[in-house]
């Protein structure tokens, strides 16, 4: 009893002292486990961690604010199978911590089960899921970096950067996620906002499953298998994102919509992917003002209807579009650089329509081995011959004659000069050869 | 060796005097340039719309050029009686054919080099040129394609008795391997059991130099994923350091086999004559 009173008195003293210094409850001992510091704090208190290395795992079961003194010098190391940091209480904030949790495991590095959690400026190195949210709502993750820590793990065996299950109204802003399975995975989670994140070298950048009203804005992704994958979702907004260089994998896409309805996909840039925009079994979506360039296939439509595809710009794609069983879409006023239209009345739209030949799609669906003929001269020739049922093809009724958006990117000049010089050298050589041969002849 | 060199230089002399060579060169250069001008937006890098079209242009033109130049050169010797004259000299069939092949390659490759030189430098000056790696890859592709088809041309020139025959066979081979290839394969393999399709297609691809070179280049340009999951291993393999040497090896075997067949036929003809 006296002991406990003593303890309380000591803690009160500590808090008073800390308050006088302007910062409450200091972590006195570097070797001390973080759990003890957390256990000693009062609910609602702010813990400011001194620089140093702390030992995990830690369970936060009362509302706390955990901050660090200064930047980037407080490290939490976890070598157990448990999550490095579990947040069970509502209204907890954790900021600035570096969490190293390199063991490959099923459990996540940060597990959030409390509502209104705020994770700010963390640096997480994980061997499982970076941040897992389970049955908790209205949290916020910002300015956090998540990296995969373990060596030699296959992509398929890695954990997700952020994994949300049954967590609604979350916000993920300005985070950087690299080398994980899915960058941000959301399942059964509605009204989340994913904005300004950067995701690289992962499987899917942003992955929605069974979500409604998700907002995916201004994110950037590169070298992932797929940038944004929206599956079985409704009223999702995918706006102003940029996904590039996702062409290495045979299933790569810039943005994929599968069984997605009544969603908006606008102002995105998909550059250098295998398929720029991939739409399957989806209805009632609006795809507008997207910049689709240098992809192997610009847009692929499969079994989709009642979508509106307008004012997009398709340039430099190997094949503009591929479509199958996608008849009743409203496709109008897109710019296709492979299409040469005729505009007799001068309204800027072509008077002849641009129909997407379904032959290759149908052929490769039945026998994938024929994929080998993608854009081969013979295949292009065969497509030219195949014109049956043309009125049922997916068709842009009035394609634009000139691109709708200003050109915002001219490829880098690097390597161009070298090509120019090589060209001149080749010209010089052949010129000399011709001259020399001519002289020999005369 | 000396004979071979003599034949090669003679072939180059004839080749560079041949108006056909210059019209082919003009055709190739003009097409390269116009494609570059059509696709002036941005530059050309990797497997994109422009490099895809360039690839197809080369696939249309180069095999036809190689087949015609090569087979006409050989049948010309027969028609004009040069061969009868040459057979009175102590000139072996092998130095003759190999020399022909080398001389014709020099002519054809300078046509290709001129076309590429022009589009490379013009693209640079117009500010919409190729990225160097892509340029190198496309040039390599064109050279490979020319050499492959020149090998076939030697065989055609041996088989055909005159230029008309050579033209017929050359156009036939060109149409069959470049244009009609997918249609034929799709029609033929469509009847086969599903599991046979991929092995059959793989084997047949190795028999068609146009497809072989095209696929190699598409993968090298980074477009391997367009071939789909069925060919994932190919993609990995071609991109490995072994890809290029093995492709060069296949090419050598191919051309060697074509020349050897031509040699055999030519020798037989000589025996009869």
Automatic annotation (TrEMBL), chain A:
Signal peptide feature range: 1-27
Pfam families, sorted: NosD
InterPro entries in the cross-refs: Carb-bd_sugar_hydrolysis-dom (IPR006633), NosD_dom (IPR007742), Para_beta_helix_rpt-2 (IPR022441), PbH1 (IPR006626), Pectin_lyas_fold (IPR012334), Pectin_lyase_fold/virulence (IPR011050), SCF-Subunits/Alg-Epimerases (IPR051550)
SMART domains: CASH (SM00722), PbH1 (SM00710)
Pathway(s) served: Protein modification; protein ubiquitination
SUPFAM superfamilies xrefs: Pectin lyase-like
Residue intervals of the Carbohydrate-binding/sugar hydrolysis domain: 41-209
Keyword Repeat: yes
Keywords: Membrane, Repeat, Signal, Transmembrane, Transmembrane helix, Ubl conjugation pathway
Keyword Protein biosynthesis found: no
PANTHER family on file: F-BOX ONLY PROTEIN, F-BOX ONLY PROTEIN 10
Name listed for the protein in its UniProt record: Nitrous oxidase accessory protein
Organism: Paenibacillus lactis
Taxonomic classification: Bacteria, Bacillati, Bacillota, Bacilli, Bacillales
Automatic annotation (TrEMBL), chain B:
Annotated Gene Ontology cellular component terms: plasma membrane
GO molecular function: ABC-type transporter activity
Protein keywords: Membrane, Transmembrane, Transmembrane helix
TM regions (residue ranges): 20-38, 58-76, 97-118, 138-160, 172-197, 242-266
Protein name in UniProt: ABC transporter permease
């Amino acid at each position: 009893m006296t002991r406990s009173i003593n303890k309380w008195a000591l803690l009160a003293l500590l808090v008073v002292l800390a308050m006088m210094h302007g910062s409450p409850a200091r972590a006195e001992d570097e070797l001390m486990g973080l759990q003890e510091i957390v256990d000693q704090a009062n609910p609602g208190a702010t813990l400011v961690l001194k620089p140093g290395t702390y030992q995990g795992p830690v369970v936060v079961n009362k509302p706390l604010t955990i901050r660090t003194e200064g930047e980037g010098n407080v490290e939490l190391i976890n070598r157990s199978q448990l999550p490095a940091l579990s947040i069970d209480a509502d209204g907890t904030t954790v900021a600035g911590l570096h969490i190293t949790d390199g063991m490959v495991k099923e459990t996540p590095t940060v597990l959030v089960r409390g509502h209104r959690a705020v994770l700010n400026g963390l640096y997480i190195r994980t061997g499982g899921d970076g941040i897992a949210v389970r049955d908790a709502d209205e949290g916020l993750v910002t300015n956090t970096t998540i990296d995969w820590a373990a060596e030699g793990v296959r992509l398929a065996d890695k954990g997700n950067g952020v994994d949300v299950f049954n967590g609604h109204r979350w916000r993920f802003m300005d985070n950087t996620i690299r080398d994980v399975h899915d960058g941000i995975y959301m399942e059964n989670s509605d009204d989340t906002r994913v904005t300004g994140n950067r995701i690289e070298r992962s499987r899917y950048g942003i992955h929605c499953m069974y979500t409604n009203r998700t907002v995916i804005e201004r994110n950037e992704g590169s070298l992932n298998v797929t940038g944004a994958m929206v599956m079985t979702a409704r009223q999702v907004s995918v706006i102003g994102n940029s996904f590039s260089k996702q062409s290495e994998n045979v299933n790569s896409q810039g943005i994929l919509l599968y069984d997605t309805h009544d969603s908006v996909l606008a102002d995105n840039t998909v550059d250098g992917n295998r398929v720029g925009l991939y739409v399957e079994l989806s209805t009632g979506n609006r795809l507008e003002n997207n910049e689709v360039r240098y992809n192997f296939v610009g847009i692929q439509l499969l079994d989709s209807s009642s979508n509106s595809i307008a004012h997009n710009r398709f340039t430099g794609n190997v094949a503009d579009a591929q479509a199958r069983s996608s008849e009743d879409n409203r496709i109008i006023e897109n710019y296709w650089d492979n299409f040469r239209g005729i505009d007799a009345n001068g309204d800027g739209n072509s008077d002849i329509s641009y129909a997407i030949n379904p032959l290759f799609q149908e052929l490769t669906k039945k026998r994938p081995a024929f994929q080998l003929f993608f854009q081969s001269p013979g295949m292009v020739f065969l497509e030219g011959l195949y014109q049956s049922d043309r009125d049922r093809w997916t068709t842009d009724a009035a394609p634009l004659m000139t691109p709708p958006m200003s050109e915002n990117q001219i490829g880098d000049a690097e390597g161009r000069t070298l090509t120019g010089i090589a060209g001149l050298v080749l010209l010089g050589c052949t010129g000399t050869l011709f001259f020399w041969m001519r002289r020999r002849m005369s | 060796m000396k004979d071979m060199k003599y034949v090669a230089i003679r072939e180059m002399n004839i080749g560079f005097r041949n108006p056909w060579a210059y019209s082919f060169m003009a055709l190739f250069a003009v097409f390269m340039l116009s494609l570059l001008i059509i696709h002036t937006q941005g530059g050309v890098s990797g497997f994109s719309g422009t490099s895809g079209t360039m690839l197809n242009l080369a696939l249309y033109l180069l095999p036809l050029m190689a087949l015609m130049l090569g087979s006409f050169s050989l049948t010309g010797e027969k028609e004009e009686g040069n061969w009868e004259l040459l057979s009175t000299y102590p000139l072996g069939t092998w130095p003759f054919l190999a020399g022909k092949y080398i001389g014709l390659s020099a002519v054809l490759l300078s046509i290709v080099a001129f076309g590429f030189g022009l589009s490379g430098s013009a693209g640079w000056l117009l500010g919409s040129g190729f990225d160097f790696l892509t340029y190198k890859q496309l040039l390599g592709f064109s050279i490979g394609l020319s050499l492959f088809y020149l090998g076939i041309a030697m065989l055609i020139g041996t088989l055909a008795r005159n230029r008309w025959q050579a033209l017929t066979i050359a156009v036939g081979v060109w149409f069959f391997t470049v244009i009609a290839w997918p249609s034929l394969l799709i029609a033929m393999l469509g009847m086969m059991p599903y599991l046979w399709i991929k092995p059959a297609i793989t084997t047949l691809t190795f028999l068609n130099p146009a497809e072989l070179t095209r696929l190699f280049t598409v993968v090298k340009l980074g477009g391997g994923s367009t071939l789909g999951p069925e060919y994932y291993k190919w993609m990995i393999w071609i991109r490995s350091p072994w890809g290029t040497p093995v492709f060069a090896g296949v090419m050598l075997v191919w051309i060697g086999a074509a020349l050897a067949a031509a040699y055999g036929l030519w020798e037989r003809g000589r025996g009869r004559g």
